[in-house]
Write a structure and sequence with these properties.
Elements (H helix, E strand, L loop, with lengths): L1 H4 L22 H6 L22 H12 L4
Amino acid sequence: FITATGSKASKQVPSMKLVEPNQIHGSYLMWKIMGQAGQLGGTADRMPKNAAALSDDNTCKIVNWINSGAQ
């Protein structure tokens, strides 16, 4: 996943990477998962779109993955 997204900038907020290893607040993906990307100038739609929010367990897994270097 990181090789596909890690070096890419967000299309909605180009100044942010989709995933910034070791930085959840610098990872646009986290803002989208939390439904707070509107605060950054992106769309406020939460990911996954048109589906239930991720469970706390799955959200924690993504947070831990990013905080551990996203590898």
